[in-house]
Amino acid sequence: MLGGGNASQHTLRAQVRAAAGRHTQPPAGCRAAPSVKTTAGGGEARGCDRGKRSTGRKRQGLVETRGLRLVVIVTATAVSENAGAKFVCARLRGGAQKLRRLWVAGGYTAGLVR
């Protein structure tokens, strides 16, 4: 897996939100996991997603209400949306302490609510 976030990204996002008159911490986010076809050549994290009929990688991502990235992790396409969502939630750090609502697609069947 590749991805995650860093302190400078969290700081920049907070500054953008504050300049727009918003709280520095986003209250909600949107979860997506589009598959990306890859070349036959190298790289790690490749796999096959039988449901989407694609081979390559998946961008497991979470953006906040203004479209700013919270977390993006690159996984093999074989990693399910449910498993990817758990990876994404595990990578959330201080930049999403107020996150209370998360919109997801219908493919998420496992409960992530705690």
Describe the fold and architecture.
The protein is α+β, with helices and mostly antiparallel strands and 114 residues long. It has one domain (2-103). It has helices at residues 7-19, 81-91, and strands spanning 2-3, 28-32, 35-37, 47-49, 54-64, 69-76, 101-103. Strands 1, 2, 3, 4, 5, 6 and 7 form a 7-stranded mixed β-sheet that branches. β4 and β5 form a beta hairpin. The mean pLDDT is 76.
Structural class: alpha+beta
DSSP strand content: 25-35%
**Average pLDDT value?**
76
Total beta strand runs:
7
Tell me the number of structural domains: 1
Principal-axes shape call: elongated
Contiguous helical run count? 2
Radius of gyration: 15 Å
Distance between the termini: 24 Å
**Biggest sheet record:** 7 strands, mixed
The helix content is 10-25%
Topology as a string of helices (H) and strands (E): EHEEEEEHE
- Give the low-pLDDT segments: none
Name the descriptors.
114 residues, alpha+beta, 7-stranded mixed sheet, 7 strands, elongated
